[in-house]
Design brief:
Number of helices: 9
Distance between the termini: 11 Å
Order of helices and strands: EHEHEHEHEHEHHEEEHEH
Oligomer: single chain
CATH superfamily: Divalent-metal-dependent TIM barrel enzymes
Number of domains: 1
Strand order of the largest sheet: 2-1-10-7-6-5-4-3
Helix content: 40-55%
Strand content: 15-25%
CATH topology: TIM Barrel
Number of strands: 10
CATH class: Alpha Beta
């Protein structure tokens, strides 16, 4: 298995620093979720007019871009939202060609009061359209365990409806466990055959926090990290293990220069 980090954890780093630190710390790849102040990176010169040069810099450094983590959603409540999600997938699919990236992450999308069966049908239809866009560029769309789709049974019903051919799953290992109280064994049972990529973070139960937990450095919380990794290993998973240090959303978290080495060190020990 290979290690990467999402740029959500280093919003202050420029490309030089991202590349230098990734190589120095022993990462194999970088998962782009924004760059500096912009989440939609395809709007930036580095990923539009200068995209070929940027891609070459990563390749020359021996770094892969395994995934572009977009803001697009599988379930869209209206036509305007749907068109925005499809256009975002289209933009990232273009970058997948240039960077040789195999995956585009999309969120499940909040369904609110929409009945689950209706949400599943709508999301399946939009994912089929996303598949056509991504496949033309040699990429696949992965739906993250996020929003109401942290319920692995619900996500299984949607992905299973597509037979796993048109989309896969990005297992954010924290979300089902923390937000839905779902044991990782159940998540794997429902979704294991569809999981192609993973996002990792650690946390500790914290009744004083509004979410019921607070983030910690990797290996210092009470997430069942070893159990999750064992499920992946026993299931034949050979993909990326990507640190998602949510520095962009939680500026009080330690700097990436502190958090990223801790992830590499702890994950290497777990892998052994």
């Amino acid at each position: 298995m290979k290690l990467s980090f999402t740029t959500l954890g280093c919003p202050g780093w420029d490309l030089d620093t991202i590349i230098t630190q990734a190589v120095k710390l022993g990462f194999d790849g970088v998962d782009f979720r924004g760059y500096r102040e912009e989440l939609a990176i395809y709007k930036l010169p580095e990923f539009s007019a200068q995209a070929k040069t940027t891609a070459r810099r990563f390749a020359d450094a021996g770094l892969e871009v395994p995934c572009f983590s977009s803001s697009a959603r599988a379930f869209n409540p209206d036509a305007q939202s749907r068109q925005a999600s499809l256009e975002e997938v289209r933009q990232y699919a273009r970058l997948c060609t240039l960077f040789g990236a195999p995956y585009i992450r999309v969120f499940g999308g909040g369904i609110g009061s929409t009945p689950p069966t209706v949400a599943i049908d709508s999301a399946s239809a939009d994912l089929k359209a996303m598949f056509e866009i991504a496949s033309d560029h040699g990429a696949r769309v992965l739906v993250e365990t996020h929003d109401e789709w942290v319920d692995s049974d619900l996500l299984h019903r949607m992905i299973g409806d597509l037979d796993g051919d048109l989309a896969g799953v990005l297992w954010d290992v924290s979300n089902p466990y923390r937000q839905h109280g779902e044991p990782p064994e159940l998540t794997w049972l429902n979704l294991g055959r569809y999981i192609e990529y993973t996002h990792w973070k650690d946390s500790r139960a914290d009744p004083t926090h509004r979410e019921g937990y607070s983030y910690t450095h990797f290996g210092e919380g009470d997430m069942p990290l070893a159990t999750i990794l064992e499920l992946l290993k026993n299931g034949g998973y050979q993909g990326y293990l990507a640190l998602e240090w949510e520095k962009r959303w939680h500026p009080e978290l330690d700097e990436p220069e502190v958090a990223f080495p801790k992830f590499v060190e702890t994950m290497r020990l777990l892998l052994e």
